[in-house]
Write a structure and sequence with these properties.
The chain contains 7 helices and no strands. The protein is mainly alpha-helical. It has 2 domains: about 1-55; about 55-145, no CATH class.
Length: about 140
């Protein structure tokens, strides 16, 4: 039953948000072994690689993604959560890749628009996930009564 509700959310957390298996298990309240099985069966490592490759083609993409990761780190720290070492390593690798890329000038206003659009999308997605989880928990509570 939980796979129907949380599999896609867990996969997205792993592949796109670079949250560790332990972090996903803790946040979703699912056994870590279950997340590991889903990761293996769904080939999440390859999907993460593909996502990263797809989103790191240009300097602008890498810069925007690094900015988003920093905002996520800041939010997690403000909420009292620890940042997974693997996510920090991904961030450092992206910064290194950014330095290697050929310099491309772009307007600061354009960067702000792109970064804000990405942040708005993530906030919207997180709110949607939170609402879905609350509804699922309420449904489970109603069913247990």
């Amino acid at each position: 039953m939980k796979k129907d509700k949380y599999y896609e959310v867990a996969e997205k957390m792993y592949t796109e948000q670079f949250i560790t298996v332990a972090g996903i298990a803790k946040r979703l309240g699912i056994n870590e072994r279950t997340i590991k099985r889903w990761k293996k069966d769904g080939d999440w490592s390859e999907k993460r690689y593909q996502y990263l490759h797809k989103h790191t083609i240009s300097k602008d993409d890498i810069y925007t993604f690094c900015k988003t990761m920093l905002a996520n780190f800041n939010s997690e720290l403000q909420n009292g959560n620890k940042i997974d070492t693997s996510r920090l390593n991904v961030f450092l690798n992206l910064v290194e890749e950014l330095v290697k890329k050929e310099q491309q000038d772009f307007e600061l206003e354009e960067f702000i628009k792109v970064a804000q659009k990405r942040l708005d999308y993530e906030e919207e997605m997180l709110k949607e996930m939170e609402n879905e989880m609350k509804a699922a928990m309420q449904e489970e509570l109603n069913n247990s009564i």
